[in-house]
Every structure is written in C-alpha cells, then in structure tokens.
C-alpha cells in the first residue's frame, strides 16, 4: 500500500460495520471513499476517522474560539488614553479620503464636548487671557492678514501645534504648495462670525492652499483631520474651517469612569458611594430588555481615589446628574426610531434623552438640559455581571473606549466565567459572622491591591489598536 492511499475505515473486531461519521464500511473490501492511510497502516478503529469529533477536538475548538474572542474584541473601564503600551501601526495601504462639501468631522456640532467644546468667552487685546495666545511665525504658512494688524497670526497653543503639523502635511502632499490662513483670532466688535465663535478665542482657523486650487480643498480638510484638529468643516468652496479644544482641556489618561462620590442603589435598598463598593455588592443595573435589575459587582475596571480627572457632567430636566469620563458609554433614547443605544458621554447633546430611574422604580427617558466639564478627585469603575449600572439614577454602561456595548460585554466573558467559578467554590450557607469577615477581606483586598486600571483591561487595551478599526474606538 502506498502512503496517502485512500482506504476505508477499518475495525478489525467488527466486519461490515459502518462508521457513523463518514458512512464508510469497516470491511477492507468495501468501497474506497474519504479517509487516508498513514504510512502503511490502515485505521484500526472507526474512532480514528478524520470526521470523528472526539472530546479532545471539542476542547481544541473551544480553546480556539475563546482565543479569537479575546484577541479580536476589547473593552475597558475608562482605561488609559489614546496611546498606551505599543504604538499604533499605520496601514501601509491606507489612502486618505477627501472630505466633500458640507461634511464635518466628527459628525457632531462644533461646540459639543466630543468636538471642540463650548466657547469660554471672547478674548480682547486688553484681556488677561490675551497673553496666552501664541504668535505664529512659519516659513510653511502664508497669512492673509487682511486687517493689517497681525491678528491672524495669534491663536491658542493647541491650535498652533495642529497648524504646524498640517503645514508639514501640505508640503508632503503637494511639494510646491503651502498652507494659507485667511482667518484666525478675530478682534472685531461686531461678532461677524457669531457671538460664540471660537475665532474670538484663537481656537479656530479658516484655511486654504496658497495656490487657491479648490480641487485640493477636500484633501486639505482630510489632512486637517489627521493633523489632530478637533473639528474640521468643509464649509464651502472658498475655505476649510478648523477648530480645537481649549488649552485648559485635560486629555483623559488612566481615567476611571465615575467620580468616587457618585451614588448607586444596592439590593438591600440602601445607597452607597462608589468609593465604598466592594466585589460581591449587588447594585441597580439594566438588563438586555431595558428593565432595572440588581447585578453583582465582579471586579473594578479602574479604581484610584487619589487621581484627579476631568469629567463630563450632564444634568436632566428633572435634576438627575451624571458625572463620567468623556469616553464612557451612556444609554440614550431615540424617540424617532423608538430605540435605545449607547454613545460616548462627550457625544451627548442637549437634545438627547438619557434613562433615569424614577420614584416608580422604572427607567424613563429624560432630556439633557445642561452639559459641562468638571474636574474631580477620585475615579472608580465597577464592572457588574450585567455590564451596566445605574449611577445617580442615570443608566450607564460599565464600559468605555469601544463604541459597542455588545462587543465590550463579550470581551469580558472570561472574567465573568472566572467569577462564576469562584462563587461555586465558596459555600453559600455561611454564618453572618463569616459573611461579614469575607466582606471585610474583600474591602481590604480592593483597597490594598488595586490602585489604577485592572490588569485584564490593560491587556485588552494593549491589543486594541491592532485589532479594532479606528471608527470603533473613542
């Protein structure tokens, strides 16, 4: 017999027996079909059939599926900022796509917290903040300066930094072309740009190329996005409008999700501050059907009571206040589509509706009437088994950074499984004294052994930039 010759499954004990998996007769004289001989030997049993699914093969399949889930998904408590661990590797086949007229990036209003943020007030030449504006001098930038006062050369430090990056990108894209600024800081008293325009704070620029070739403006807008401007608008055929966040804006890094003094409702009817929560507490959450339930805390994605961080604070029409980090997912209601979804906190606008747990013990939509940024000390990010949590009566996710609640929840499946295994290992019929002692140990364990982002969240975050498209991330 030659190696790799096709032969039937062979069971030397039972002649004329069919393999139940490949339907091949076990007699050597039967018709040759789908199995192979290895070296010069027949298969000695139908258990050797290649189509036979043994216990070991199931284990291998399960392991491979779990590995794939862990590698291609990620979710994080409000973990590290945009760069951590390894740098993001740019796709060598990437080709920037020009913007079209009336398109703006991101696709939200300019003065929302997810874009350039709200106006902080106009800056005049005699204002104390005028000293904070930077005079720009560059061989790669042409300034129109139609006022003749040099006003177009003044801008915030963040705006200058992004403009310098864009100027180099323009030279690289079109070697004989330079960036042209037609409007930057404006000191006119008539508010021609609109009273709350960011031009009056030096946080906005209107740009073209110095050859005024309008066919380049779509690509110029894309280059501005890649240079790091917080809001880019291909306003019309005459120019591109770009703006940035305030210099006082603090980019979140290693940030927790909620303030330490945020309040949650526990299963025994009492309330607790975030800083007092321990693993095993059952707190008010939301199930897949949008119904309030109590869910167990299985770990803390992030916990640092001494860290000072910047938060988004939203207030509803009936007074509910939620304070979370910008990249945190919050549950909102779309009345037109009659659909609930999760969005990043800094993309919520005043017209949006969030879910509030009211006195009827139900979750009802309430309109957001106020949005602001605040700085607080202490960050806590508990993870419940349900993946959701109701904080200060407002429904929110336990996840951040990734813009999919389902994807984030799946990526934490190994930790939920591990928590279930641990719960089965401990008997439930313990005395009150034993339960009290267990809670004390859990509190000490959280306080002593965790200060910062949980190791599992860090591991997931490390691979995030390699496996998730940029459109899926904050």
Structure write-up:
It holds the Pfam family HH_signal. Belongs to the hedgehog family. It is a single chain. 20% of the residues lie in helices and 27% in strands. The protein has helices spanning 55-72, 157-173, 217-227, 405-411, 413-425, 432-449, 455-467; strands spanning 6-7, 35-36, 104-105, 134-135, 141-143, 154-155, 179-183, 204-209, 231-236, 239-243, 258-259, 263-265, 271-273, 282-286, 292-316, 321-324, 328-334, 339-344, 353-357, 363-384, 388-391, 394-400, 452-453. Strands 11, 14, 15, 16, 17, 18, 19, 20, 21, 22 and 23 form an 11-stranded antiparallel beta sheet that branches. A hairpin with a 2-residue loop joins strand 21 and strand 22. Helix 2 packs across helix 3 (217-227). The longest helix has 18 residues, at 55-72. The protein is elongated and about 75 Å long. The termini are far apart. Mean pLDDT is 77; it is low at 1-56, 71-77 and 79-92.
């Amino acid at each position: 017999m030659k190696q790799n010759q096709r032969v039937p499954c062979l069971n030397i004990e039972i002649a004329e027996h069919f393999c139940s998996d490949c339907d091949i007769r076990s007699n050597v004289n039967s018709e040759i079909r789908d199995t192979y001989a290895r070296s010069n030997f027949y298969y000695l049993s139908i258990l050797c059939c290649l189509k036979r699914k043994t216990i070991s093969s199931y284990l291998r399949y399960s392991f491979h599926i779990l590995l794939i889930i862990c590698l291609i998904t990620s979710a994080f408590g409000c973990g590290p900022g945009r760069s951590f661990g390894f740098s993001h590797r740019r796709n060598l086949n990437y080709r920037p796509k020009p913007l079209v007229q009336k398109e703006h990036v991101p696709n939200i209003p300019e003065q929302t917290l997810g874009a350039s943020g709200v106006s902080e007030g106009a800056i005049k030449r005699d204002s104390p903040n005028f000293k904070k504006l930077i005079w720009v001098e560059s061989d790669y930038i042409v300034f129109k300066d139609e006022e003749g006062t040099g006003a177009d050369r003044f801008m915030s430090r963040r705006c200058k930094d992004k403009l310098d990056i864009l100027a180099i990108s323009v030279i690289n894209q079109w070697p004989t072309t330079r960036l042209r600024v037609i409007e930057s800081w404006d000191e006119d008293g008539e508010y021609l740009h609109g009273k709350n325009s960011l031009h009056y704070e030096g946080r906005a620029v209107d740009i073209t190329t110095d050859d005024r070739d309008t066919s380049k403006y779509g690509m110029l807008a894309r280059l501005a996005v890649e240079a790091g401007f917080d809001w880019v608008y291909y306003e019309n055929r005459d120019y591109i409008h770009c703006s940035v966040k305030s210099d006082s804006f603090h980019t979140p890094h290693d940030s927790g999700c909620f303030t330490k003094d945020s309040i949650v409702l526990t299963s025994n009817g009492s309330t607790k501050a975030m800083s007092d929560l321990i693993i095993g507490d059952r707190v008010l959450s939301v199930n897949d059907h949008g119904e309030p339930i109590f869910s167990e805390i299985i770990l803390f994605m992030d916990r640092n009571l001494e860290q000072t961080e910047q938060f988004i604070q939203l207030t509803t029409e009936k007074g509910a206040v939620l304070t979370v980090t910008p990249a945190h997912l919050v549950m909102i209601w779309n009345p037109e589509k009659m659909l609930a979804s999760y969005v990043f906190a800094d993309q919520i606008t005043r017209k949006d509706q969030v879910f509030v747990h009211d006195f009827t013990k139900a979750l009802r939509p309430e309109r957001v009437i106020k949005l602001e940024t605040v700085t607080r000390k202490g960050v806590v990010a508990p993870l419940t088994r349900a993946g959701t949590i109701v904080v200060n009566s407002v429904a929110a996710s336990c996840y951040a950074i990734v813009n999919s609640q389902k994807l984030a929840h799946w990526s934490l499946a190994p930790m939920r499984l591990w928590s279930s295994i641990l719960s089965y290992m401990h008997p439930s019929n313990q005395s009150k004294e034993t339960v009290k002692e267990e809670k004390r140990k859990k509190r000490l364990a959280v306080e002593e052994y965790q200060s910062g982002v949980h190791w599992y969240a860090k591991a997931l975050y490390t691979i995030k930039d390699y496996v998730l498209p940029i459109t899926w991330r904050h």
